[in-house]
Design a protein that fits this description.
This protein has 2 domains: 116 residues, Macroglobulin (MG2) domain (Immunoglobulin-like, Sandwich); 176 residues, Galactose-binding domain-like (Jelly Rolls, Sandwich), CATH 2.60.120.260. It has 309 residues and is mostly beta strands.
Length: 309
């Protein structure tokens, strides 16, 4: 273990910060698509690239001056058309500032940044895919909480300062986490510039990984952060990790091998105060000693576990 101590200390935040693994910010699937009239030919249900064209990053060539115009990157909804996208194994969670960005395809008319051609859509979100909460949108001149109101700017799509697109904050509707994003062409509900809105991409800005089964355990709030010993230990191939956090905030739980390399991110997102259990499935890991590291705010706790196959 001494041979690898510096690497482990860096990975565990004791000598400096290591890079944080990025959860996939794009949706995983389209669970519903209903095309309305006036959908653009080739960008409608005949599009051979659908649904993959809306399950990744926005068109990297799109800007307010040159909007996207290729079916590999864009899907037309048609008047009143609707699409529902799902995040599997992850949830968009409420964090500081906007929580997700939706990229439509508006553009500056004649290159004038004060004159935007808009074909807008309305957004609602859901945890279960059944009950949706709609964002309280506003049309002209505010253009608030509507897709297709703000052109893509071509910057990092995960940086709302430079990305463009339309931003949505879950705090505005009092929701702390969602798996589904529904986008419905505004049709007669909002006066805009065209009969059919378009969808390029949805980018989650605050995510928590749920693939390992984070479960909230009922009980009194903890006085301080607690990271329990995993059970069983040694284990094969899965084990339970329990932890508690006293305050809401960004929480990460990661697993490292004895080289200090991150091998799994179990939790990465905003959690409420409480106690949680996470299942680590180590089917694809080799036997050996592993460390798991919990960080909540500035508090850090580390424990050792053993995988025996």
């Amino acid at each position: 273990m001494k041979t690898y101590l510096p690497a482990l200390m860096v990975a565990l935040g004791l000598l400096g910060s290591a890079s944080q693994a990025q959860l996939r910010p794009w949706p995983d699937s389209v669970t519903f698509y209903r095309q309305g009239p006036n959908a653009a030919p080739g960008f409608d249900s005949t599009n051979p690239y659908f649904p993959m064209n809306v399950l990744g990053p926005p068109d990297p060539t799109a800007t307010g001056l040159v909007p996207s115009d290729i079916p590999e990157e864009l899907q037309s909804l048609g008047t009143g058309g609707e699409i529902i996208l799902k995040y599997s194994g992850r949830a968009i969670v409420d964090g500081p500032g906007p929580d997700f960005t939706v990229f439509g395809n508006p553009f500056f008319i004649g290159g004038d940044s004060n004159n935007v051609y808009r074909k807008v859509a309305i957004v609602s979100v859901s945890r279960d895919g059944v009950t949706f909460t709609e964002f309280p949108f506003q049309g002209a001149p505010v253009w608030h909480d509507l897709v297709g109101a703000t052109p893509t700017l071509g910057g990092n799509p995960l940086d709302p300062r430079v990305s463009g697109g339309d931003k949505f904050d879950l705090a505005e509707i009092g929701v702390d986490s969602v798996h589904f994003v529904k986008i419905v062409d505004a049709a007669g509900r909002v006066a805009d510039d065209g009969p059919s809105s378009n969808l390029d991409a949805v980018a989650a800005l605050h995510l928590v990984a749920l693939t390992t089964g984070v479960r909230d355990v009922a009980g009194s709030l903890p006085a301080g952060m607690i990271l329990a010993q995993n059970y069983p230990n040694p284990f094969n191939p899965s084990t339970e990790i329990s932890f508690s956090i006293p305050t809401a905030g960004l929480t990460t739980l990661k697993v490292y091998n004895n080289l200090g390399q991150e091998v799994s991110t179990l939790v990465n997102g905003q959690l409420q105060p409480g106690s949680y259990q996470v299942t680590l499935n180590a089917t694809n890991l080799a036997s050996g000693v592993y460390l798991y590291r919990l960080q909540a705010g500035s508090s850090i706790s580390v424990r050792k576990m053993i995988l025996l196959k």
